[in-house]
Amino acid sequence: MPSKINKIGVLTSGGDSPGMNAAVRAVVRTCAYHKLECMGIYQGYQGLIDNNLTPMNARSVKDIINKGGTFLKSARCLEFRTPEGRKSAFENVKKNDIDALVIIGGDGSFTGAMIFQKEFSIPVIGIPGTIDNDIGGTRFTLGYDTALNTITDAIDKIRDTASSHNRLFFVEVMGRDAGHVALNAGVGAGAEEILIPEEDMGLERLLESLKRSEKSGKTSSIVVVAEGDKTGENVFEIASYVEQNLPYYEVRVSVMGHMQRGGAPTCFDRVLASRMGVFAVESLMRGKSNVMVGINDDQITLCPLEKAIKGKSKIDEDLIRVSDILSI
Ligand code: F6P
Q1: pTM to 2 decimals?
Q2: CA 71, CA 42: separation in Å to the nearest integer?
């Protein structure tokens, strides 16, 4: 491990999320502020393997704080999972005199960072960037707030057409393994039911709940379904099961898809990204490594990468109760 950090490499990896650009900007400008060199690495770990990187200065990151996606581009790099891939990546780290890395991404990206750090003793620090909000050691990940706002906005629109036609809508949102997006967007949009991977509600209970809704005088309903929900095979199967069993409902399905991952970051995500980016660089300068920056009780914190990966964030049981009470 070099005693002094002179040059930092920054990359974005895994599924992109709004706020990643703001975080890169913060990393690059904090480097400039402290007179460190900074290299932007393209396409996540793939850019390290391919030596696809470029020097960045404060002006390289102008006009990006407000942009969704990641201008450095991102990838889920399979080659980096192999020892050969990581060896090539480290050769390019050395060739470019990079002393430390900032990895902006989710648990898969942090797993790669941890292995890389262990194999080659290169200091690494993570910034949590994923709309899923499923990382341990932080209350919020970058992009989560933006995605929630995008989804609630879309569901508000779906509700307009649902109530005009007295229809029951199933809205699928992202979240292969975690239901934070579905639960929070569902409560925010006033959904009647929310199906998440953490809880198998069961199709029979869903039917009972929809029957109650109909009896209570509701003429239209929204059911938010997380991608990874265990109730049925997929949202279309759940919808068709309900349609067969409750023929008085006219059912439609709307899949949010990748539109929920794009768009300009909210102010919350921009500020969070800015705070995390500054903290990441200054933590590396203080000799920290193998840790992730998080936010807890509005304080920017550090936690071991291992805890971030394995910790996962717990689903908010109380919010499930809130949803049950309010969907009466
Ligand atoms: O990890 C973020 C995420 O948006 C998940 O919610 C979703 O399941 C997945 O990425 C989709 O990945 P891809 O864009 O590779 O299809």
Answers
A1: 0.96
A2: 8
